[in-house]
Structure prediction request, 726 residues.
Amino acid sequence: MTKMGVVDVRQPLGDDGEQRRERRAWHHDAQALHELAPDLPVLPGPLTEYRQMASFDWKQLRVLLEDPETLRVKMNLWRKLEADPMFAHPKATPSVEEQKRHVAVQLKRFVEINLIPREVHSWGYKNKTKFMMAVNAATASWNKNLSVKFGLGVSLFTNALLSLGTERHLPFYEAVWDNKFLFCLGMTEVGHGSNTKSVRTTATYDPKTQEFIIHTPDFEAAKCWAGNLGKTCTHAMLFAQLYTADSCHGLHAFLVPIRDPETLTPYPGVKVGDIGEKAGLNGIDNGFAMFDHFRIPRENLLNRTGDVTPDGEYESCFQNPEQILGAALENLLAGRVAISQESTHDLCAAVTIAVRYAAVRKQGSPRNSKEELSILEYPLHQWRLFPYVAAACSFKVFMDLFTDQYLEIVEQSYKGAEMKDITSMAAEVHAIVSAMKPLITWTCASALQESREACGGHGYLKSSMLGTMRADHDATVTYEGDNNVLSQQASNWVVRHWSLAKQGNSAALLDASPLGTLNFLLNAEDKLKKRFTGTSKTDVMNAHFVMASYEWLLCWLTKALDNQLQKLKSAGVDRFTARAEVQAFYAKPLALAYGENNVLCYFWEKIQTPGIPSEIKCVLERLLVLYGLWGIQRHFVIFYRGGYATGSQLADLVQEACQTVCNQLKPDIVAIVDAIAHPDAVVKSILGRSDGRIYDHLYDAFMSQQGHMERPAWWREVAAKPQSKL
Ligand SMILES: Cc1cc2nc3c(=O)[nH]c(=O)nc-3n(C[C@H](O)[C@H](O)[C@H](O)COP(=O)(O)OP(=O)(O)OC[C@H]3O[C@@H](n4cnc5c(N)ncnc54)[C@H](O)[C@@H]3O)c2cc1C
Prediction:
């Protein structure tokens, strides 16, 4: 497995240089280009003009930024969804109830017509999960409601079932894939979300009947928010505190019947319903449930990490309940990886719409010029959008490479393969995911807002799709681990290794970070002595400056966080309070910077692939530099606070460089979004189509609304009263 450390771009040889020589050369075949990057419309117009300015072939970039196999799965799925009327998008917004019905029947069809072929299940963990993740991301771009419903009810559930359950649970796996059962994942309660340890639903074992009694003590302990629970699920994978006669053994997962699969009538003892209309994702029936001494068979405990014997003896391979919970939750990590992939897709769609619109939309002109300028020509507009384009490309590459590593590690551990550093790998993967899900979903959320604004008033039209995407995407920063809480787990892991860095113990650091994401801590004290000495914008407009600055930033943040924690400890502050004290100004910036650095390192690694055409390499380097400088200017305070720079030089040069790189990217930007764009039928935006005919599509949208030019049926209520003729 390739390590993804910080690459010293000045030193191509040495350990990293060896690795580079082993890299497989990049190549593409003409057939792949034709299939995965269908030709774009060649109508004369502003998009064509910008396309003609491009310095590279967008088709080649497309199959470089994403594994062609994964892209092929997505393109095939999109074609099938487009061809089936059941998956067509309604023209007007349906009622909330209708949205739920529509998505529920779409899910049924999704499984019925084998959009996921049966043979996938025999492919082995890595290939199967990679395929499913590609299907999930593609479905999310088509309709996020459908992917969430499918993810929770089928794919995430069956994945979790395989890792938490044992042979006796396989019939549930089969029933879900046969469309007989639909699941929900019930962790969150009305009174507890992030602090999963404290959920209060109980599962008490009764040895007389060999059953668990599921019980909700009060409304605050009601299960809440679970997708599919509101109206449609037949079962829940429910997390509850397991009690036997003698004690509580902590949180465990149980398979709990909720509704009769044939009538969808809830079982007696389960009070269940929908939580009501939400800000988005209204095709999902998020629900609540309260259990009144509801009995389930002993075998419905998912017993891979802990079990109860028929006579009530608790057995576990772990010492304490927190370890058991940790193992159970670790299995949900795939959900966070999938969310990061979906979010990357949404980010690509957002910038596709905004950049294409910016190329076509003309507003204002210089004095004495009759020709109006495309808003893409304005440096402010470039600065608002281009960093998000850079982020989209970088995240795409990161997710592609990291997903492969992640799945490989899980597969090897399932096989029981001899991996000496499996424990440290698991911890590192957990930290990476805990940093990346917040970074990617937050970046996408702000990109959606910026793109909406960048399209002006028309961006506010529902048919621009930006509002719908923004509302549906919004929840990703909260579910599957709230971003702020999740990022604490990443910073905790990083700071734990500061003592090794301080001792200069490189060997131990390398052991602790088999994927190399802690390499910035190697020789940390020396790195911290570095000072900014640049004198011209070329000193900062390169990958070496960006990556070396990030190393300094990360070392400083890690050391500062450790110092703060030590100071609080010496003052007698307990661990919990100390960790809370340092969150805002040390831990959260560290987690974000760690995530950004991971993106830069993986992207850099990708750029080094031999065989990439030089003109594409040049574009990729510009994107990397822009993404990095964008981050550096957000962290200016730390660079000055930590003494890396004094005076205005750093800020002046970085700002100048940002503007210059944007200007350099301008002729290529339309072709770059062509490379990351989903097909028109998937993006569904009248502003973001590949033909760039925004005004034709706006006209069609205005004219195709039902009754749009008719007098309203309620006209009498508002029209002036007739004047009396007397
Ligand atoms: C659309 C949607 C779908 C969902 N689907 C499911 C599902 O299928 N199954 C399920 O079980 N749940 C589901 N959830 C619930 C989701 O997992 C929780 O909302 C999430 O875990 C956060 O918990 P909470 O809402 O209780 O927020 P809280 O934990 O109460 O957090 C509220 C705020 O406090 C902050 N905060 C909390 N703890 C700390 C701390 N220690 N330090 C600093 N700040 C802190 C958080 O950052 C957050 O901003 C869904 C939620 C949504 C919105």
Summary: The radius of gyration is 27 Å. Residues 152, 184-188, 193-194, 225-227, 281, 286, 475, 478-479, 482, 484-485, 583 surround flavin-adenine dinucleotide (CB under 6 Å). Residues 633 and 651 are 7 Å apart (CA to CA). DSSP finds 28 helices and eleven strands in the chain.
